[in-house]
Amino acid sequence: MEHEPQGGGNQPNDYRMTLLKAVELGEYDPQVLARFPEWHQLGRHAQFQLVRKGLTNRNFQLQSTWGEINNQLNFSKKPHLHQALRNIEKQIHELREEEDRLFVEFTKV
Fold it and tell me: Any coiled-coil ranges, and where (predicted)?
């Protein structure tokens, strides 16, 4: 039975970023996703579905972070957290605008 080397050398495949892992982590930008060779093997519809999944994942991450911050103990006594919430709300708004733009881009004939 062969084993991966323990130290040095190439990283095991588990630690390499793949197209699907990037989407799972909330990456949705087609220019970033195009850096993965697999992206170019997909049709436009499949590419769009990955973009949509990335948008959904990113939105979930932002909403979850917002909830975690909002539910901090003594939230009202931590004014710096109010700014963090505003920053996240701004990112959510920008994400929605980006989503609209990408829908238009990917539905062009």
Answer: 78-105
Question: Model pTM?
Answer: 0.83
Every domain of the chain and the residues it spans = 19-107
Q: Is 44 left (phi over 0), alpha (psi -120 to 50) or beta?
A: alpha
Q: What is the pLDDT along the chain (109 residues), one digit of tens a residue?
A: 444 444 445 555 567 999 999 999 999 999 999 999 999 999 999 999 999 999 999 999 999 999 999 999 998 899 999 999 999 999 999 999 999 999 999 998 7
Task: Please report, for residues 17, 48, 49, the alpha-carbon distance to residue 107 in angstroms, rounded to integers and kept in the order given.
Answer: 28, 9, 12
